[in-house]
Design goal:
It is a single chain. By secondary structure, the chain is an alpha+beta fold. It is 48% helix and 18% strand. The chain contains seven helices and seven strands. Strands 1, 2, 3 and 4 form a four-stranded antiparallel beta sheet that branches. The chain has a three-stranded antiparallel beta sheet with strand order 5-6-7. Strand 2 and strand 3 form a beta hairpin. Helix 4 packs parallel to helix 5. The radius of gyration is 32 Å and the shape is elongated.
């Protein structure tokens, strides 16, 4: 009467086995989330490292190389202060027809993105793929120039006394800017980080251009020295000459490193 029934023993043994398997299965995955979390946790710090972050960025205004696109060139100019981009603007962008609308919609957003990101790692504006791609290329070029100027400034600043320092005057000639009436090319003398002299070594000439040049160039020269940058007003009645002058002046400033 007290003997265990064989069927009951078999049922109890099976139940014990199933319970043990369930416990093992419930315990085994506990190590997976920890390892996955550890693997995932190591990625964000590496991704957060900005490229070229250790490279100093020189203060001043710098213009990137023009980037050609299917609909026209895009060229970006940056203003850098305290090692940071404080202003970004497109001095060239596609224009004419539908390009006008695309440019007016995309360029302000790209300018804002460049200042916010402090790099060329910015999003493409929807509907303006070509303009965005050209903008980022020219922006990267401007950043490269600014970093080169910053590195040069750091090396000269840490070189101790002697040699040509920031106070040494030097003369730089900008690239010739083509206009409808002829090229304009500006040469500047820089001393102590400031423009002390500006002159046009090329300007439109012949016919009415002679009078326009003689009237506008001296005023542009004076404005360049006063402003210390290419942010100068256009001389009334000399729009083409003024535009070419400012482009060549900016090129000279870029070469001067500021």
């Amino acid at each position: 009467m007290r003997k265990s029934h064989p069927v009951r023993r078999a049922v109890l043994a099976t139940a014990a086995t199933v319970s043990g398997i369930v416990l093992l299965l419930s315990l085994k995955p506990a190590s997976d989330p920890g390892s996955a979390e550890a693997a995932g946790g190591a990625v964000p710090p590496a991704a957060a490292q900005p490229q070229g972050g250790s490279q100093p960025v020189g203060d001043g205004t710098v213009t990137g190389d023009a980037a050609s696109t299917q609909y026209g060139a895009v060229q970006v100019r940056l203003t850098v202060s305290g090692g940071k981009i404080t202003k970004a603007e497109a001095v060239q962008a596609p224009k004419g027809g539908q390009s006008d609308q695309i440019t007016s919609n995309s360029v302000p957003r790209l300018n804002q993105a460049a200042v916010a990101a402090q790099s060329a790692e910015i999003d493409t504006v929807s509907g303006a793929t070509y303009t965005s791609t050209g903008y980022k290329k020219s922006l990267q070029s401007a950043l490269d120039k600014a970093r080169a100027a910053g590195a040069q400034g750091s090396s000269s600043g840490s070189g101790g006394g002697g040699g040509g320092g920031a106070g040494e005057a030097r003369t730089v000639t900008g690239d010739a800017a083509q206009t409808q009436y002829g090229p304009v090319q500006v040469r500047i003398t820089v001393s102590g980080g400031k423009i002390t002299k500006a002159e046009a070594v090329q300007a439109p000439k012949g016919g009415q251009s002679d009078q326009i040049t003689s009237n506008s160039v001296p005023r542009l020269n004076q404005a360049a020295v006063t402003a210390g940058s290419a942010e100068i007003d256009t001389v009334s009645g000399a729009t083409y000459t003024s535009t070419g002058y400012k482009q060549s002046l900016q090129s000279a400033l870029d070469k001067a490193g500021g």
